[in-house]
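Cross-posting from the modeling subforum.

Setting up a comparison between two proteins and wanted a second pair of eyes on the formatting. Protein 1 (sequence, then structure tokens):
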Amino acid sequence: MAEDAQLHPSGDPLLAAKFAVPAVPPAFVARQRLLDRLTEGAQGPLTVITGPAGAGKTSLAASWREADLAPGPVVWLTVESDDNAPGVFWAYVLGAFRYHRVPLPDGVGSPSSADNVDHSLIVRLASALAQLPEPVVLVLDGLEHAGVHGIAAELDFVLAHAGPSLRLVLIGRVDPALPLHRYRAEARVCEIRRSELAFTPQEAAQLLRCHGLTPSQESVGALTDRTQGWAAGLRLCALAMQRTDDAEHFAQSFAASQNAVADYLTAEVLAAQPAATQDLLIRTSILSHVHPGLADALTGRDDGERILGRLVRDNAFVEPIGDTSWYRCHPLFSEVLRAHLRSRSPALGAPLHREAARWLDGHDRLTDAIEHAAAADDWPYAAGLLVDRLAAGRLLTGPDSHRLERVFRSMPDGLPGAAPALAAAACAMARGDATAGRKHLAGARPNGDATAECLLTRAVLRLLTDADTGPGPGTTAPTAPASASGGDRGGDDCGPATEAPVPSRGTPDPDREVRALMERVDRERLDRHPEIEALRLYGRGRALLAAGHRPEAREAFAAALAAATDEQTWTVRYHSLGALALAEAVDGLLREAEAHALDGIKAAEEHGIPVDRRTPRCHLALASVSADRGDLTSAARHLATARSHPPARDVPAAAEAAVLRSRLELAHGHAAAALSALDDVPVAADGPAGAEVAGRIAVARCSVHLGRGDPAAALAALGEAPPGGPALAVASAAAHLAAGDGARARRLLAGLTGGEPVAPAVRVRAELLDARLTAFEGDTGKAASLVAGAVRTARPHGLRAPFTEAGPWLRHLLARVPGLADAGAWLTGRSAGAGKRPVRGSGSGDTATGSPLFVEQLSPRERDVLRCAAQMMSTDEIAAELFLSVNTVKTHLKSVYRKLSVSRRSEAVRRARDAGML
């Protein structure tokens, strides 16, 4: 019945055993009165079955389902103590519906965080259930384990809005946190409580007869009185009576106490076993699952398989796990056994955990082994397993990452040796704290006889922690480029003066040490850890990106994606998609960036990556794509989503977020806010990563200053930047041109040829700047040709922003040169002839001549002002209408004139109407 594995919010698979309807135990008594009550209750929305442990709650519901008395399909979920987080609980509820073949539309979604659930998911679930063709019964067994009040409120909401399509059966030891008083007042709840669950003397007699016993009426009465009809007590008593010579006396003398389960299990189950069986049960109580071989390792004997098989046959609270060789004890029995271990042999726990760790390690159950080593408080051994088995990468990615992080989060600080320091570093990096990771790595100094696995682990972690600070030791440093923005800073330049070509920078080799060490590790072991190669490539990409080598970084991220196909590499794949998408977006490869960003967001949902572990880079890439396409509304929306995933300690991502925010503020005419947005990024240009971030911020500042007509400030902003590549050179050329130094701008642009590859976004801006210079020099034909070339470069990528940000000169050129009609049509989204309108009067306007319109987007407030102006309102009247000052209205009008490339109000209104803005 199981479908494909569904995912827990942590990324772990959901445990299908929780969806299985428990088997009705042998010698079960079907009590018709309770089956009828449950059938009656299922006609309404809510049935609550409460009682103590062992009262027969689960068996009742399971037998009712087996008897096919439900009004529709039954969906079963056994709720356990680790399901008490809202996201985990609802992930299992959705998984239960899928497991039991109750169709829910894909649009319902799934929780992305363990700690909370978006209310819209609850709404979608209720809506989907309300549309089911027949009622469905959802049985939640053990709901007391999901005691968070928010879960109860969400459950109440679903029940209320799913209508008659949902019938809820809640099983637990205590009342659910639902408003039962309201359900009672509305006669919409059926409650089956302890008193009803208790066996009557007649039912108790039937139970004993099912166990092959023929007790007297007096014995049944005494037993029923003393157990108060408690189902588990009666069953335990029946099992014991089968083994006694005087069943009548046993039944008459049976007495329950406050610790009846523990007392009875001890006296009648544990004590009834041979000494060797008792020893095995107590020693294996430290395990959640036991294998005969593991049992032998803990007892020092070879009788594990025989004893476990006999316990299963004797129904002695041990059961096999599916078709495997593993077994498990009943949880209550396990608790009793662990209590005996603590009381009888308190010093035995740690050695048993340590021995279990050794056996599990030898049988490819590494995470279990590490957990037992930690339970033994043997942290050097636990950390040694992590490092020497090359599993530190699994702290960062894969289904066991959260289990391992929970283990090592409890490890004390300051333990000697390289392995604990490496484990602590990996744990810090799993939390996104590269600074703490570097600190721990500084203390991880392998000695001369360190294994290749230890050295490789250290090299991989160092590559990842240094990824945003540039290449560290063991790398080939990039050749220092001649600055495109530095050089002679004397005289009255206020900024860059370099006129030499921008050279190609030598590519660093940040992962050279990792590759060399991978050659020293056993190939079979390395093949079992595909996350190492994926992490290497991802770290290489981050380091190259930090050093400003975007094309090579993109290649590394693409290679990481190709390597990240195993479940152990889910997280690496997700982060590689985000990093690749953002790098492509910044370079102007918009279609590729959009595809990879959407794939990354999908991967996060599919693999249940928690929200607090998600990167903002996917949404930053989408924001950048939207901005470059001229869709500022979508850009703002994606940027807001990106900022909801804080780029904790991810300075490059924070820088991109600041640059995007600045661009959007500038596009809306808010220059001061645009500059302020760039002040939020802590820029420290003390390495390749800092230089790259500082360069990005400097170019953004330059754009703001140029937008506000202050070329001197633009040059000053660039003068503070470290040496950079083509983007800085183009920004410098634009600033010099705005300052009136066209010759220097020309030389800077000429320096781009023959140097390192230029990304489409930078190349388009360079071509437009060249066109502007050419037009300024009077060669309109050549300028038009250059603009057409820029369009050819931009069009395959959908790059419109460089044109909207180019200024009025481009709009005038498009209007004057008929040969640019096709270019203008693409930029405005019209066909080449769409700009033609019937000519009025003399037909002197741009529209009358059929020239394509090309206008920059207006902010919402600028549109409001323009609408008022179109109604022939004066400046004072507009100010009063919009509750603005007169000066503010004038400022908005000036911005409108600039964006529409007009000088009068009437022209602005006409141009806006022609562009469809009014």
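Protein 2 (same layout):
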Amino acid sequence: MQAGGVLAWLTPEWPPPEHDVKRINLLMNKPYHRTCFFILLPLLPVAGLWKAPAVDADLRREFADPPLHWKSRPLWFWNGKLDADKTRAMVAACKAAGYYGMGILPCKGTGVEFMSPEFLQHYKVAVDEAGRLGMKMCLYDEFWFPSGSAGGLLAKKYPEALGKRLDMLVTDVTGPREFVQAVPQGTLMGAVAMAMATKQRLNITASVKDGTLRWGVPAGDWKVMVFACVRDGGDGLVDYLEPEAVKAFIKLTYQAYYDAMPEHFGTTIDSAFYDEPAFYHVRGGRAWTDRFNEYFRARYHTDPVTLYPALWFDIGPDTAAARNALFGLRAELYATGFVKTINDWCAAHRINLTGHVDQEELVNPVIGTVGDLMKAFKYQSMPGIDQVFAYGRASRAYKLVSSAANNYDRTHVVVECYGGMDLPLPNLYKEAMDQFAKGINTMVPHAVWYDPARIIFKPDLSPGSAKYGAELPAYNRYIGRLQLMLQGGRHVADIGVLYPIATLQAGSWFGPGNPYEGCVDIPEADYMEVGELLSLQVRRDFTFVHPEVLEERCTVEGAAIVLTNKVNHERWRVFLVPGSRCIHVATLRRLKQFYDQGGAVIATTCLPDRAAEFGADAEVRQLVTAIFGPEIVRSAQAPRVTASSTWAGGGFEPAKATDGSLQTRWNAADGSKGAQWLEVDFGSTQAVAGVVVHEAFDRVRGYRIQTWDGAAWVDQARGERLGKRKEISFAPVHTTRVRLLMEAVASDSASIVEWTILGPDGRDLFDRRPSACHRNGKGGRSWFIPMPQVATLRAVLDEALPDGDVAIEPLPSLPGGNFSYIHKVKDGQSIYFFANSSDHEVDTWVTLRGRITPELWDPHDGKISLAEVQQGRGQQDPVTRVHLNLPPVRSIFLVADEPGDRAK
């Protein structure tokens, strides 16, 4: 039987029941979403016709009534005077509320000195009681936060272990002459002279004698730089880059806890938690170690001294590679010096390590946080993230941290959540839904408070809380079901997305901006925004892939890139390179191999043209041209959009003002007032004759439209107010750059929804259309999307992969939350989690690749029911459609046997 030329009935019963004939006839000629024409048969939930998934009976029983060990474990702030009886009572109350355990976070007001015998005795009371009740404890490793000071003990007992900083003393000199300069205090890292005209660099360290630099300056203008590593000691924190320093911190905390209660390690105490280490605690984010040169020579077999100027200046063609070498090593030293050193200690004492860094949502982590957010978790048994202060604040970083776990084959991804939010009850669930749908699977609520009268950060998630206490048992049953289903197993996604650390490192340098806010904006770095578009609007799941993981843990198998982990092995049929100017050569070689074997490659915003390695720029350009074709490469450089400042919380980058959407905007830094600007660099000469500006809040009180004449900015128009929409015309001018200068604002900061630059014919000069598909003879395809948006990403992905692992029909805007999903395979079962965290009902069909007969598992009440499904064939693969109806703030699991016909 055929209809429209394509048919494959997959129902267990044929012919269908008579009462379904009319419905089947209607379906036979109904076009499917994404223009796939095929027949779908409704599979009715009739007893005897349905083959239930072969799910273990224990799993069904535990889902209905989750045991305690699947439930959440909050932070427990010790913010009041300690009393043994009260401590025991609180532990018991937490168990009654559904908490499986706690992590004690010591604060002021306990009445005992941190890490004193009295403090440890009180701590042991809590651990003893937890052990007696069958609960677990997580060892929080600090007094307050961030981790690394041991509550001030490190500075007192091991001052040599405190953080260090790289300083530069720079002098501009003109030769010929003799230059004499006293060398700064600290460990001399090197002295370099750089010719201003040619960028030639000379290592003049040998000219330093007895604390003085004496150097004969050749003719010309030179920049003389002396680099020294000095003790900083910011906030009394440890040197995160030095294992021996971190061992001193361990001795004061981890080891002291172990010595006080060794019998509980590996039993009641099963994990440890570090909190918010970051480079910004050192002045300028310039965290360094006096052994850096030694480590560099061991890794790269060359001396780093002549590369040091790149940390502050453009040194010519070597700039990108030099920064990648220096910042890349610093990121590795953090991962090995701090995280691995602690993780190794934990493993030796039979506990796991979790914890999170600070400011994970920053687009650029190179200067201010820990250098490389994904690599930070390379040696950590349970990667973690922080979600505090506002709903969804760290949303765009969830996938980075869960992807790090996927990359490095970790089964648990931890979130510390809710702190600093006076949130309504539904948001307990909204946050969890969003996070677990992006790969997080272990909840640490923030927080239970020892003294509810002295709460520092709301909410109070203590069992006795008037607002939340009654909800905690139901909440913990919900979390228990999520953790039961989503911990372990392997992640399934069709799309790999490159983590563009090479571009982030190449574009970073010391000096500008606030390290807490990321220091340097990288205009082309769209990876977080692309990730959010994929997850929350296009709704195609993906995995961020670290370039080292792509090189070391991935292979190309036919038209797929395969992550060859033992547990989390993934298969990507599409690989996306987000906006990148710099890239590792090994990354492009792997993508060229993938493309040559029929793979699909997508790039956004700009194509790379320089290498993260020395002397390899030409190979980068050659490989990019081979993958995308010379025509795309010639036209691929999208305009660069930059700004005077950007809102630190993220989501308001300069490119948002030119993305063609009135739903997004650029926002200047909070409180920046006037003298703010947006600039577009077209990279080539354009004829410009006007602009249209949409302002968010009618704050501007003086503006200029300026163009660049090659030497200076020239006013083309000026005025007082912009408002909701302002169209400004002027005589045509040829220029490469256009600037909107906002000289004053009425309050707060400038915020521009959209800024359109017009040619003489009134045409928008931003070309947001994706390129035509470039193909090779073996099925390889590539696309370039100059300005990634929902429609363009969706269109290209529909062409690249018409039968995705999961396809969700386009939905209208969902205020107050999101509709998102994750797919995992665990113990032979396909587990799909769909979450509607929004304030609106979602009624839709989802299409799953493969023949499956799923059940609906409701994590809110533990009930299991049959799903309304249709089965058929897509353009390439068998598929199953499932009807979902989710009220606001509701989620559901689909559980099915892993199909044997899933496309490989």
